Amino acid sequence: MKNDRSFDTISSKFSKNIYGTNKGKIREAVLKRDLTEGVPWLGINPSMRILDVGGGQGQLALFLATQGHHVTLIDISKEMLDVAMSNATQQNLQHNLTTVHGALQSIPDLALGQFDLVLCHAVLEWVVEQQKALTILKSCLQRDGLLSLMFYNRDAQRFANLVYGNFDYVQNDLKVKKKVSLNPNQPLDPKDVAAWLSDLNLSVLAKTGVRCINDYLRDPKKAENQFNELLAMELKFNRQEPYASLGRYTHLLCAPFDDSE
Question: DSSP string spanning the chain?
């Protein structure tokens, strides 16, 4: 039986191997750019309510809190939440952040209310019932709210392994006997995500690929030696096709639409 993934015992490893890498820096920069440009009230109305689902150590939550918004951060890992609140306190943002220890699936029982913006970044690929999880996220949105959804792109995972020459792995439908600790359990097929969003009456306002270039570099040292140039190229091309669909992660900004008309 498959189980959802928790990082409660490896928060320091997660911080070092994910957040502290160039990959993590690219991801954070892309999300901040997308939110800044795609959320019309960001930086204008400082009193909006934001829910960050599975937001871990709170990098994005604190970025939004600095702009005066109140962010509710829910995560299955108590260790991650402790780090987030410690960072918030150091930045004098503790009054703009509420932490909730719980899984995405527990949200309907928590009576958190509805939000102007819901973030769910790099979470669905660790969840077993992904379509149900999206339904829960939709229920958290105000009528005119926005959903920021980032997921591990199965198409890009397949393409990268073809480029690397991992033909047996691709032939085995990207399955291995032994899971690597920080490798997502269940990457998502973008076509499935599109269908689920449509079923929930959520329209995609914007699409970005995250790490469209970095993960395909023939010389990985360039990511270290020319990081600023790499990041500039990522930000320049990652909302254009075909590059957007090659991102290791896909970031979508979604909004409910009225199907009654």
Answer: -------TT-HHHHIIIIITSHHHHHHHHHHHHHHHHH-TTTTT-TT-EEEEET-TT-HHHHHHHTTT-EEEEEES-HHHHHHHHHHHHHTT-GGGEEEEE--GGGGGGT----EEEEEEES-GGG-SSHHHHHHHHHHTEEEEEEEEEEEEBHHHHHHHHHHHT-HHHHHTTT--SS--TTS-SS-B-HHHHHHHHHHTTEEEEEEEEESSSGGG-SSTHHHHHTHHHHHHHHHHHTTSTTGGGGSSEEEEEEEE-----
Q: Give me the helix-helix angle, 22-38 and 227-237, nearest 10°.
A: 40
CA count, 13 A, side-chain hemisphere, 88:
28
Distance between CA atoms of residues 239 and 34, nearest Å: 10
Torsional sign, CA 72, 78, 83, 86: positive
User: Taking the model in full, what pTM does it have?
Assistant: 0.91
- State in Å, rounded, how far the first CA of the chain is from the last one: 43
**Amino acid of residue 118:** V
pLDDT (tens digit, 9 = 90+) per residue, 109-136? 999 999 999 999 999 999 999 999 999 9
CA dist., res. 236 & res. 145, Å (int)? 27
Distance CA 148, CA 125 (A): 15
